[in-house]
Design a protein that fits this description.
The protein has 367 residues and is an alpha/beta fold. The protein contains 13 helices and twelve strands. The chain has helices at 53-69, 85-97, 114-122, 146-161, 180-193, 210-224, 237-249, 265-273, 284-299, 303-309, 338-342, 349-352, 358-363; strands at 41-46, 75-80, 102-105, 127-130, 140-144, 169-174, 198-204, 231-234, 279-281, 312-314, 322-327, 330-332. The strands form three sheets. The chain has a seven-stranded mixed β-sheet with strand order 2-1-3-4-5-11-10, with helices on both faces. It has a three-stranded parallel β-sheet with strand order 7-6-8, with helices on both faces. Strands 9-12 form a two-stranded antiparallel sheet. α1 (53-69) links the parallel β1 (41-46) and β2. The radius of gyration is 21 Å and the shape is globular. Mean pLDDT is 90; it is low at 1-33.
């Protein structure tokens, strides 16, 4: 079993989920279990609502998979903290008090939630960190390869610029400083951008707020000049929307390349129209289904199945050698919308190509 630190970058841009050799290691969840049967409760804690993926994709997929793995006898309970760490602490305490069997935790603040992770552990409730690596004695971690996300974004900006020049001014709009993933995205992006362009301005964005991203981008435009920004690194799609509004208010008609992440519908439409250069598509079904499989296997005592799903090891600031699965990601541009988010059933062409975008869709053969 190869041990890696969470900050180690992957060397490939895209990989097949099937190639991971893990996502189909489901076993027979209906079989007799040495720990629990199918009548289990999985608590699911999501961090915020600005990013629509958590409630539109992640949780429904987890809910459906838990039901499938338990012959519809298992159930899920859900809470979303709306980007408030204090709210999530209370939500997790309630799940502990209600004696759920296992908790899938996507932390608002990885450090603040550590005491609750320990409380759950003391209560005999396993905690699996989902999407963000929480501190404390978590039992496992499932996420995308976060540093690879940043590498993909940085590499895409360089490709968009064509022949990158060290004098090209790039503005970086990073994610929330309380989210450990944000630092990994930034580190991955810098591994591609460093020395090739000039990072003229860099901002960390509290709560991944599009409004704060817009305000910071306005500051950068005022300082650097609206025609002196070669590209913008945006850590996710919601902030990219705010960044684009800042450019529009400044009277910029020809936008520089802007990155994103999460393949939100509005971002896919902006990619079609040319407002946003790219997003990082993270195959949510793979991550969410793997999380559900890990949770059910853990509480049912299916150690072989659980080990097959967590073949890697990662370190958090408080724990070492955490069993983990890191799902690969894909760079989403105009050229592969149909083979990614459409092919995976995330969106229909009709969802993307509304009347406003029909001509742009036709121009890239999306129909």
């Amino acid at each position: 079993m190869r041990r890696i630190a969470i900050s180690v970058a992957a060397s490939t841009l895209t990989l097949s989920l099937a190639g991971c050799g893990m996502l189909n290691a489901t076993g027979d969840s209906a079989a007799a279990s040495p720990t629990r049967g199918n009548d289990i409760t999985v608590g699911v804690l999501m961090p915020e609502k600005t990013n629509t993926r958590y409630e539109e994709f992640d949780y429904p997929i987890i809910q459906k998979k838990v039901a499938a793995l338990t012959r519809n006898q298992g159930k899920t309970v859900y809470a979303n903290a709306a980007a408030k760490a204090s709210t999530q602490v209370k939500q997790m305490q309630k799940m502990i008090d209600d004696k759920v069997d296992v908790i899938l935790l996507d932390a608002v603040d990885a450090h603040t939630i550590a005491d609750m992770v320990k409380k759950a552990k003391d209560a005999g409730i396993p905690v699996i960190a989902y999407d963000r690596l929480a501190e404390g004695p978590i039992d496992a971690y499932v996420s995308f390869d976060n540093e690879l996300v940043g590498e993909v974004q940085g590499r895409s900006l360089i490709e968009a610029l064509g022949t990158a020049d060290a004098s090209d001014k790039v503005v970086m709009v990073n994610g929330s400083p309380t989210d450990p993933n944000a630092g990994q995205f930034k580190q991955g992006a810098m591994s591609e951008l460093n020395g090739k362009v000039t990072i003229a301005e860099s901002f960390d964005t509290a709560d991944w707020s599009p409004e704060i991203a817009q305000a910071n981008m306005t500051k950068a435009i005022d300082k650097l000049g609206k025609d002196n920004i070669a590209a913008v690194y945006s850590a996710n799609d919601a902030m990219a929307g705010g960044i684009i509004k800042a450019f529009e208010k400044a009277g910029v008609s020809e936008l520089p390349p802007i990155t994103g992440q999460d393949a939100e519908l509005s971002a896919v439409q902006r990619i079609v129209s040319g407002e946003q250069y790219m997003s990082v598509y993270k195959p949510y079904p793979g991550e969410a289904e793997a999380a559900a499989e890990m949770a059910v296997a853990k509480i049912q005592g299916k150690d072989i199945q659980f080990d097959a799903l967590t073949r890697k090891k990662v370190d958090s600031p408080t724990e070492k050698d955490i069993p983990a699965q890191l799902v690969p990601v894909v760079s989403l541009t105009k050229s592969n919308i149909k083979s990614t988010v459409v092919a995976d059933g995330i969106y229909k062409v009709s969802d993307i190509c509304t009347s406003k975008y029909k001509s742009a869709c036709a121009a890239i053969g999306l129909k």
